[in-house]
Amino acid sequence: MTTNPPNLRPDLAPSARITETPQSNQPTIGMVSLGCPKALVDSERILTRLRAEGYGISPDYAGADAVIVNTCGFLDSAKAESLDAIGEALVENGKVIVTGCLGAEPDYIREHHPRIMAVTGPHQYEQVLDAVHAAVPPDPDPFVDLLPASSVQLTPRHYSYLKISEGCNHKCKFCIIPDMRGKLASRPAHAVLREAEKLVQNGVRELLVISQDTSAYGLDRKYDINPWKDVEVRSHITDLARELGQLDAWVRLHYVYPYPHVRDLIPLMADAGCNVLPYLDIPFQHAHPDVLKRMARPAASARTLDEIKAWRAICPDITLRSTFIVGYPGETESEFQTLLDWMDEAQLERVGCFQYENVDGARSNDLPDHVPAEIKQERWDRFMEKAQAISEAKLRAKVGQTLEVIVDEVDDEAATCRTKADAPEIDGNLFIDEGFENLKPGDIVTVEVDEAGEYDLWGKPV
């Protein structure tokens, strides 16, 4: 039994899980997947294509004929982590193909690791396959290997990420992801719904909807109409969420910018007949209008508080998760205090926080008045202390309540579960340490909460 540490980087996906055993004499590929859930979905698609061509998926370096490292370029610290992972794969295996966000900077990668076999950018699936073919020629057995019945999943079988779009039209000064992944490119609604339906048919109990900007879904398609079974569905987040909510699985929305039309999602969350969870992951980033302006983000924190009040009036059980940046260039003590005061009023249930750091190529690097490291750390500590106190009070109020939870893991000590208010690995857990012996991952059970901590709950089945 483990509890979530409160300082997990909120941009990270769960660690990739490879459980397949390659067949003998089958060419095998290993995968190291770093960064966010969007990158994890890219890794799943690459491995699905490779498995369909007859490749086995190796869970370790030694058993692989080559290794793909799917990199992250979100922060300079993430770039360093990616370079370390490439170096480790070179030492342990020797045949390494690099893809992902950092792959958009091939010269930078080759400067550090000239022995890599190939470099491709994010979501360049065909180029990755070409590189694998060159390194390890396929040798398919058409009676065994081709056309697998289901896709390769790197998450536990009972939940899956569902990517609805690529890219982003925002120009936030601290972020270079749009430069790496391009402008918004939404998938047709019928394609998303077909994938979601197939996942549910294969046993997925929770769909985690992801993109760079979920609220903007379909804008680039001019919200075109898609036929889906006996209805017509716009490529619009409201229509998409409504149809996803009819499937037999929880639907959790991530990376939702607080555009005005987000309020149309809230009645779906309050509808007992719809499986869209009362949960919104919204990257507010800060609360002071001057900081938001320096970030090149909408500076409407007061109106945001009004929106939060309106959402809670419609759906009192809604859980709000957000991420923030402290120590952004030019941030004064007064501006930081405004953020703390905003937190007191907003009372967000789930919060993650970054200390600002420069990223090569970001426009924020050139801003004046960078905040010293010791002040960034001190502000991060104060912010997390505030967030922790809010979380602890919110969780204490749940003691005695009856909640539905989904089981993630079962060991000798307890069943590790999540409530509707908790996304995998970035939020808290609910532990059942009595009467859990017959539970298994993916079960959805009802519990009575009998204990609360700073980030986690404990309960017993009812």
TrEMBL record:
Q: What class of enzyme is it?
A: transferase
| Catalytic activity entry | L-aspartate(89)-[ribosomal protein uS12]-hydrogen + (sulfur carrier)-SH + AH2 + 2 S-adenosyl-L-methionine = 3-methylsulfanyl-L-aspartate(89)-[ribosomal protein uS12]-hydrogen + (sulfur carrier)-H + 5'-deoxyadenosine + L-methionine + A + S-adenosyl-L-homocysteine + 2 H(+)
Provide the Gene Ontology terms for cellular component. ribosome
Annotated region (Disordered) at 1-29
Residues covered by the TRAM domain:
396-462
Origin: domain of life:
Bacteria
How many and how are cofactors bound here?
Binds 2 [4Fe-4S] clusters. One cluster is coordinated with 3 cysteines and an exchangeable S-adenosyl-L-methionine.
Q: Where is the MTTase N-terminal domain?
A: 27-137
Tell me the ranges covered by the Radical SAM core domain, including all copies. 154-393
Could you tell me where this protein is found in the cell?
Cytoplasm
Question: Keyword annotations for this protein?
Answer: 4Fe-4S, Cytoplasm, Iron, Iron-sulfur, Metal-binding, Ribonucleoprotein, Ribosomal protein, S-adenosyl-L-methionine, Transferase
Q: Which HAMAP family match?
A: MTTase_RimO (MF_01865)
Q: What is this protein called?
A: Ribosomal protein uS12 methylthiotransferase RimO
Question: Quick one: which gene encodes this?
Answer: rimO
